[in-house]
Specification:
The chain has two helices and seven strands. With about 150 residues, the protein is an alpha+beta fold. The chain has a seven-stranded mixed beta sheet. The protein is globular and about 45 Å long. The protein starts with a strand and ends with a strand.
């Protein structure tokens, strides 16, 4: 999509590209794993709800909240890496928990994973956490992410 020059002199191109990672199965329903949006000298990554699934589409770590959360973060990281981005580029998370009683476990897993990525709490993105019915009975957490990075 291209925007024409306006009275303010804006003229820029928006390019959208579907995201994928070999760590995750190809989406077989009407959504993509994420969308890369290119805006002049910035790239925005909109990562769809991602969970603890394997490349063959099966659920990993059924019944183990901590392991599912870490696996989910690793899946998000694989999508970021494919687009030359990193966890430090994430500006917003939306976290869906099957049970809000797992909120403290979510925070502990997030702290652990972010610290493993070399990030301090001051660098954590904005986030929203809600209790929701997830797409599979054995999933305990699902996470969406928005990241922004400079074009290389």
């Amino acid at each position: 999509m291209r925007y024409k020059k306006s009275a303010k002199g804006l003229d820029f191109m928006i390019k959208k590209t579907k995201m994928h990672s070999p760590r995750l199965p190809e989406a077989k329903v009407a959504f993509s794993r994420g969308i890369k949006v290119e805006l002049d000298n910035r790239i925005m990554l909109f990562i769809s709800g991602t969970a603890s699934v394997t490349a063959d589409g099966s659920t990993a770590h059924a019944g183990d909240f901590h392991a599912q959360a870490i696996h989910t973060y690793k899946n998000i990281n694989s999508l970021l890496k494919k687009e030359n981005a990193a966890f430090k580029d994430i500006v917003k998370f939306t976290i869906y928990l099957k049970n809000m009683d797992d909120y403290e476990k979510m925070n502990n897993a997030r702290d652990e994973f972010f610290q493993s990525m070399g990030l301090s709490r001051e660098e954590f993105p904005a986030s929203t956490c809600v209790e929701a019915r997830l797409c599979r009975e054995d999933l305990l957490v699902e996470i969406e992410a928005i990241a922004i990075r400079k074009k290389k």
